[in-house]
Amino acid sequence: MTADPAANDFIHDIVRRDNEQGRFGGRVQTRFPPEPNGYLHIGHAKAIVVDFGLAEDFDGICNLRLDDTNPDTEETEYVDSIIDDIEWLGYTPANVLHASDYFDQLYAWAEYLVEQGKAYVDDSDIETISAQRGGFGKPGIESEYRNRSVEENLDLLRRMRAGEFPDGSRVLRAKIDMQHENMQLRDPVMYRIRHADHHRTGDTWDIYPTYDWAHGQSDAIEGVTHSICTLEFDTHRALYDWYLEQLPLPSDQPKQIEFARLEFTHTVTSKRRLKKLVDDGVVDGWDDPRMPTLRALRRRGYPAAAIRAFCREIGTTRTNSRQSIEALESYVRRDLNATAQRRMAVLKPLKLVLTNWPEGQVDHFEVANNPENPADGVREVAFSGELWIEADDFAEVPPPKFFRLSPGREVRLRGAYLITATDVVKDADGTVVQVNATYDPASRGGNAPDGRKVKSTMHWVSAAHAVNGTVALYDRLFTASAPGERTGEPLDDLNPHSRELLTDCRLEAALAETEPGAVVQFERLGYFAHDDRQPLLFHRAVGLRDEWAAIQKRQGTR
Predict the structure, then answer these.
(1) Is 243 helix (H, G, I), strand (E, B) or coil?
(2) Are 220 and 228 in contact (CB under 8 A)?
(3) For 215, which DSSP code?
(4) DSSP string, 157-213
C-alpha cells in the first residue's frame, strides 16, 4: 500500500479496517461508473481521483464502467471523451466495461426475482406509480397489479422483452415494502420499456434497466469490493443491499460507501444545464475554456497534476460543501510556476520609440526561460529602437502610486535598459498612440552604473520581431458565488462578460514556436495555454496572483 498522508480520509479508514478484518480476502477493487450522456466535469475529477486513487493506495484495481442504461441520452462520442479524459487526468483503467455488457445477466436475474415472488409487472402509468408511492410521513398504496401470479408476471416480462408493448405501458417493479420509511424501498422500478436503439446493442433490447437495478449487480459481476458513490446515493444503499441479498452472486457482496461530491463557487456542474449552455450557443462547445468540463480545463491550461493534487489534498467527507474556485486556482498556479517557461507578450499594445537609439541597431539579451528551473536554460530576445509596451503601463497624467512610465519618469525594461519618457504622439481624437523616450546605453541589462534605482520594471516586445496573436481573457462564467441561490435557476447568474478576446496582441517571436496545448507564463500577466487547434491563440489559465479575491475585497463582496 502506498503511504500517503493525504489519503487519510474516512474511506481509506474503512478500507483499512476491512482489510484488517479479512473482508474480501484483503482484496480492493473499485470502479468509476459515469453515464455517457455528456462530458466529464471537475466534479467527476474528484470521483476519479477517489476511485482510482483508492485502488492505487491499496494495490488494487479500478475499472471504468460506462453506465449505459439509457439509450435516449447516451452517445459513443461521450464514451470516447470519457476514456480520453481519464487518461489525461493520469489514470489507466484496468478494464473498460459497460453496464450493457451485463444486460443478459441482469435480465436473467430479473426473471429469477419474479420466480421468487419478489418482482412483478405493473401496468400503471408513471404518474400513478409516483402518486401511490406516497411520501415521507405519507403511506404508500399498493398497486392493483402487485399480487399477480408468478406465471402471469413471467409471461408479461418476457413479452415486454420481446417488444410487444408500447413505451410507458408497463414496468417491472421489485416487491419490497410500500410502507417502508425509506422511499427507495417502496417497490422501485427495475425495467422500463424503451423502443430505442442503443449505441452498443442496437435494437436488441426493448426494455432497459434502471440505474439502481444495474448498479449493484454490475458491481457484483465484476467483483467490486468497495462501491464508492456520491452522497445523494446514501438513501439508495438499502436498496443496493436488498437486491444483492436476493441473488445468487458469483462473489462477495460489494460494500457501498458514500462521500460528498465536489462543488465549486461560481461553477455549475449539472450536465443538463451545461448541455443547455452548449445548445444555446452561450459557450462555444463542451471544451470552451469557460466551462468546468475536464476537456475545457485542459484546453485552458489546467495541469492534470494540479487537479489531482487538489482532489487528494481535500480528501473525502460526509458533509456537502462548496469549495472556493480560488483554492483550485492556487494549485494550478503553483504547478505552472514550477513548469511553465517565461515569455513576453503585450496584450494591449502601445508603440514606444527610443529617439536616441542608433538607427538599424538590434541588440540581443539572454533571458531565463524559467527562474524556478535553471535546467530550462536561457533564450535570446531581440531588442530594437521601436518596441511595444502595455497601454496600461503608461499614463500621461499619472494617478497617485502609479510608478510605471509617464513623462519624465525613468523605468526599467525587463532585462534590457533604463528608459525615460520624453513626450507623446496623439491621434486626431487626442488618444496617445506613441510614447517617445530615451534610453541609457550604460544601463544594459537593466542596472545603472551609478546605482540609481527605479520603482518599476516593465515587459516589452521588439516591434520589428514581434508576431501577432490573439489572447482570450476569462472571468467567472457565473457572477454569483452560489449560482441559482437567488432565483433557483443557476443560468440566471450567467456573466455576460465572461470572456474578453484581444485580437491585436504583440508576442515575443519565440511564442510562435510554442507547442499546441503548452502553457507559458506571460511575464507580469499570468499563465496562458497555446490553443491546440488555432495557432497563436492563447487562453489565460490563471493570473499570477488571486486578482479575483482582490476585486471582491474592494467591492465588499467577499
Answers:
(1) helix
(2) no
(3) H
(4) HHHHHTT-S-TTS-EEEE-S-TT-SSGGGSS-EEEEE----BTTTBTS-SEEE-HHH
Active site residues: 35, 261, 271
Residue closest to 307 by CA, chosen among 9, 7, 92, 47: 47
User: Rounded to 5, what percent of the chain is helix, strand, coil?
Assistant: 30, 25, 45
Burial class (CB in 10 A: 0-12, 13-18, 19+), 154: middle
Q: In what order do the strands lie in the sheet with 537-542?
A: 341-343, 519-522, 526-530, 537-542, 467-474, 499-507, 345-346
Confidence of residue 3 (pLDDT cuts 50, 70, 90): very low
**Contacts of residue 138, Cβ cutoff 8 Å, sequence gap at least 6:** none
Output the CA–CA distances (angstroms, integers) from residue 451 to 356, 365, 418, 446, 447, in the order listed.
22, 21, 12, 11, 7
Treating both helix axes as pointing N-terminal to C-terminal, what angle do 304-314 and 42-57 enclose, rounded to 10 degrees? 70
Q: Helix crossing, 42-57 with 10-20: angle to 10°?
A: 30
- In angstroms, the CA 112 to CA 106 distance is 10
- Category of 439 on φ-ψ map: left (φ > 0), alpha (ψ -120 to 50) or beta: beta
End-to-end Cα separation, the chain, in angstroms: 42
Contact 483, 447 (CB under 8 A): no
**Quick check: 201 and 66 in contact, CB under 8 A?**
no
Catalogue the long-range contacts made by 487-490 (C-beta closer than 8 Å, 24 or more residues apart). Answer: 490/268, 490/270, 490/273
Look at the pTM and tell me if it is higher than 0.85: yes
Residues 218 and 35: their CA atoms lie apart, in Å, by 14
Query: CA 265 → CA 332, 503, 544, distances in Å?
Result: 16, 30, 20
Q: How far apart are CA 363 and CA 376, in angstroms?
A: 22
C-alpha cell at 89: 487526468
SS3 494: strand
pLDDT, tens only, 273-302: 999 999 999 999 999 999 999 999 999 999
Give helix 103-115 / helix 211-222 axis angle, nearest 10°: 110
Largest CA distance in the chain: 102
Per-residue pLDDT reduced to its tens digit, 455-512: 999 999 999 999 999 999 999 999 999 999 999 999 999 999 999 999 999 999 999 9
